[in-house]
Amino acid sequence: MRQLQEQKASKEQNNNNASNNHSLVTMLHQIQETYNYLPENVLRELAKEKNIPLVDLYRVATFYSLFSLTPKGKHKILTCTGTACHVRGSEKVTEEISRVLGIQPGETTEDGEYSLEAVNCLGACALAPLVVVDEQYHANMTPAQIGALFNGVRKSTCQDKESSHCHCSSVAVGSKEKS
Amino acid sequence: MPSLQSRINTAADLFRLQETLQQRASSNNRYIAVCGDTGCSAWGSKSVKDVFRDCLEQKGLAGQVGMKFTGCLGLCESGPVVIICPEQIFYQKVQEEDVEEIIDKTVTRGEIIPRLLYQDVLSGETYTYMNEIPFYQKQKRLLMGNNLKIDPNSIEDYLALGGYSATARALTEMTPLEIIDEVKFSKLRGRGGAGFSAGDKWKECYDAVSDRKYIICNADEGDPGAFMDRSLLEGNPHSVLEGLIIGGFAVGAREGMIYVRAEYPTAVVKIKHALHQAEELGLLGENIFGSGFDFQVSISIGAGAFVSGETSALIASIEGRAGEPRQKPPRLAQRGLWGRPTVVNNVESLANIPVILREGEEYRRTGTDKSRGTKIFSLVGKVVNTGLVEVPLGITIREIIEDIGGGIKGGRSFKAVQTGGPSGGCLPEHLLDTPTDFEELNAVGSMMGSGGMIVMDDETCMVDVARYFLRFLQDESCGKCFSCREGINRLLEIIDDIVHGLGTPGHIDLLRELSVVVKDSTLCGLGQTSANPVLSTLQYFEEEYRAHIKDKKCPAGVCKALIHFSIDLEKCTGCGVCKKKCPEEAISGEKKEIHEIDPERCSKCGICLDTCTFDAVLKC
Amino acid sequence: MLEMTLNGLEIQVEPGTTLLEAANFYGIEIPTLCYDAGLSPIGACRLCLVEIGSPDRSRLVSACTFPAQKGLEIRTHSKRVINARKLLIEMYLATCPSSKTIQDLASKHHVTRVRFKQKHDDCILCGLCVRICEEQMQAKAIEFIGRGHELRISTFFDKKSEDCRHCGACMYICPVCQARCQGPQEKDAVCNACLNLEPPCLEEFEDAMCYMDPCVACEQGHEPRKGCSQRKEGS
């Protein structure tokens, strides 16, 4: 038994040392950064290049919640579902976003514009409930504000798809003043 | 900075540089600090800072008045926070349009702008200076106090405050054992949750014989509701780095690693920058301070897994595997990263190290006999002053919530406070006088954890809180142990029944029995504590469970299946706002006539309740 | 050699032995679902729990993964162990009632009721198949995929695996596939159809126990020793 364990441990070590301390998690991050998700063929190439068993890659890619095996939308919407956000009503906010966009957390709209993620904590608990649209933070959200926020996003992105700056920020400032 | 081009080769080099920088700082001590932490940034502090910078330049004041875009200043609720130094005039909720007025009046003429001052909600009193504000008065900011004086991108700021002196002392004047003894003597206990003695942990790794050892800074702050580690990394990265270097020297590790969760992109940027600066000055690398000690630090980024915060899982993650905890023993000090002796310390623990070596006396005077020093709590939820508070250990929870936090938001009544994250528990009103101490909190069924403190009012349903944590853990468990994976599933199944009005009296006993078994029979800390939210809510709020089961009522009005929305016939003016806003088109009624909610269509989203200005929507 | 106390008995084992191996060596039976002597242990099923440490500061650990340590006090059938084990078996029954292995376990450990909703998840995620595929067959065609309540066992991208040689080892070792119990009805997860197993006479022990199965005390019609509760309630 001990031999088995030792064998396994030394094998793991060899595998890891062979990968030159560039951990698999880091490599997957890089792939996701390039392709916006983890495409199957790229993972296959990586497995071949680094001599990692295919299922090991799949194991790691599915274990961590930030890795996605399907393409993400152009606009990333994160709703924080941390404890502070929860007690201030984030569940209702998430439900309302789901209703407006017609997708559940973890999904992407059919047109590939938006993907919605429910994140466990973004570490800005004082601003609960928190919604982040394309890295813009929107604090103290309520279900009633969601409609305005996303109407704004949808319209502005339709008019100006190339714009890198998300127009919703103007909407958000407005909604903040309201609150 | 010309003075920074040269490498620091000896402790004397460092002290000379510190002195130069100190003189420069004191000769030019007028500056504006804009809080740049994620919290204030979300309120728009980045653009406020830019406007300040432009405005100072336009008015030709850029040379005389400095600018610092600092780390967290604590009072996140009032962001963006701007502090005019050296007087420390505290302005809150500063918008871009306020900037010019602040420069013209306060900076140039010393006039105060009353509308931007902090006002106490209860007493209505306003405060001008930072230290006068009740929020800061009971705090002891040994770790966070310097945030005001430091631009996290500037190692000069940190050096001007005597930064890296602790490292110089440790590396050139002390032996590893002396350092370990001093840390032991300070009674520093791990701030990540379990409260294990940091000195003992170091000693164990020091004793291990190996040609290579590692020290890892655990910045995988996964507890929802806690963000002090992020703030420390973003606000004062060099203090954490110093702790890591000293720790590495003490245990005999020449390689350090910082494992940061990917949800904290700003922290990653700040710490990378800090590493680069320290390397350039020779504070990292070969032969630091001429002591012969070499030390390298690298960064490893997580990918979204709460369980990776468990030390053995964290190592699995760094090694590129799924972050699953493993059986200990063998302990990490025997077999850790790449099979070598490893010590893992939390961010806040490491940030304590330079304070201990520099101000040991003061440190030991703070806190209680068993738990020395300060602890940062993230005070959030239904409390007036949300933000990060740093208090001496041993202060009561009541003092934190009432004196520092300013009591419950919106004049509602206190119901519970949740400490310790998903592994902790909810404490009721009568336990508010429990001191913040590792043992005392464990004794009442909660724990210190990483320092999340989520305040709940009478609108929070405790069954729903238990359900919330179980759902969190259901996703975040690695799933390997049957007892944890299936145990959580089954606990949640029962609680789901309860919140849907399908609970039976036997459910409460079954929840208890199952919770105890989950706690007993699971491998890692996450699994062993995963039933705590259920156990502690059952312990203190069993009545609320019974109300759900017996009366099919949710007293707090949270559980959707057990609440109904209706319209108060007396108050409804027929304004039609609710009808217009209702996403389900469940509200009918002509203009200026009493409206009605169709219970069949109502999805209980509560938008009508939020939008009605006449309090005519009833929830029961 | 390491000296330990096993149910009050002084024993000696070689360093590197696990608690399960030690107990088995000394003839004490500990139930498992995820252990196989030819594979590395992972401690997933949690049935092999034993209590270690002095009674006032004890904890439960999985015997298959915990290494023997000098001076360790081990209790394999204490009340705490039995309570946990029985509830785990109850959950196994509710989750996977069609496994004969699990039905037999339930029968053997006197689990006669199931208070959880009945599911028919065939897989109990013991990981035996994953390990035999990698460690014995050197194929590495399957792995644990996902995490938490979504953990499952699958191939790369859930597709037909190029690494699989159809050796059938995974099916051979699976405690659920292998022998299917046809007994449990819609409403009740407990089968009880084949009561062919010896019911244990002694259920929980703080300390010493008999090492015979069935035990000598029962065979001779003696009363069980103090500290041992005879299985009578409910049967």
Task: Using brief descriptors, characterize the structure shown.
heterotrimer, A: 179 residues, alpha+beta, Glutaredoxin, 2 domains, 4-stranded mixed β-sheet, 8 helices, elongated, disordered C terminus, B: 620 residues, alpha/beta, Rossmann fold, Ubiquitin-like (UB roll), globular
The Rg value of chain C, from CA coordinates, equals: 19 Å
Instruction: Give the tally of β-strands of chain C.
Output: 7
**Helix percentage range of chain C:** 10-25%
Q: Major sheet of chain C: order of its strands?
A: 2-1-5-3-4
Mean pLDDT of chain C: 83
Largest beta-sheet details of chain A: 4 strands, mixed
CATH topology of the largest domain in chain A: Glutaredoxin
- State Rg of chain A: 20 Å
- The computed structural class of chain A is alpha+beta
What CATH architecture label of the largest domain in chain A applies? 3-Layer(aba) Sandwich
In the predicted model, the low-confidence regions of chain C spanning at least 5 consecutive residues are 195-200, 208-222, 224-235
CATH superfamily of the largest domain in chain A: Glutaredoxin
Total domain units of chain A: 2
Structural class by sheet pairing and helices of chain C: alpha+beta
Distance separating the two termini of chain A: 63 Å
Q: Helicity level of chain A, as a percent range?
A: 40-55%
What is the 3D shape of chain C?
Answer: globular
User: What is the helix tally of chain A?
Assistant: 8
CATH class of the domain at 2-77 in chain C: Alpha Beta
Provide the β-strand percentage band of chain C: 5-15%
Write the layout of secondary structure elements.
The complex is a heterotrimer of chains A (179), B (620) and C (235).
Chain A: H1 2-18, H2 24-35, H3 40-50, H4 54-63, E1 75-80, H5 83-87, H6 90-101, E2 114-119, E3 131-133, E4 136-138, H7 143-159, H8 168-178
Helix pairs in contact in A: 6-7, 7-8
Chain B: H1 11-27, E1 31-35, H2 38-42, H3 45-58, E2 66-70, E3 82-85, E4 89-91, H4 99-109, E5 118-119, E6 126-127, H5 134-137, H6 155-160, H7 165-173, H8 176-185, H9 198-207, E7 214-219, H10 228-235, H11 237-251, E8 255-260, H12 265-280, E9 296-301, H13 311-318, E10 342-346, H14 347-358, H15 360-365, E11 374-381, E12 387-392, H16 397-404, E13 414-419, E14 425-428, H17 438-443, E15 452-457, H18 462-476, H19 482-499, H20 506-521, H21 525-529, H22 532-551, E16 565-567, H23 577-581, E17 587-588, E18 596-597, H24 607-611, E19 617-619
Parallel strand pairs in B: 1-2, 7-8, 7-10, 8-9, 11-15
Antiparallel strand pairs in B: 1-3, 3-4, 5-6, 11-12, 13-14, 13-15, 16-19, 17-18
Chain C: E1 2-6, E2 9-13, H1 19-25, E3 49-52, E4 59-62, E5 73-75, H2 79-95, H3 100-108, H4 128-136, E6 143-145, E7 152-154, H5 169-173, H6 216-219
Parallel strand pairs in C: 1-5
Antiparallel strand pairs in C: 1-2, 3-4, 3-5, 6-7
Helix pairs in contact in C: 2-3
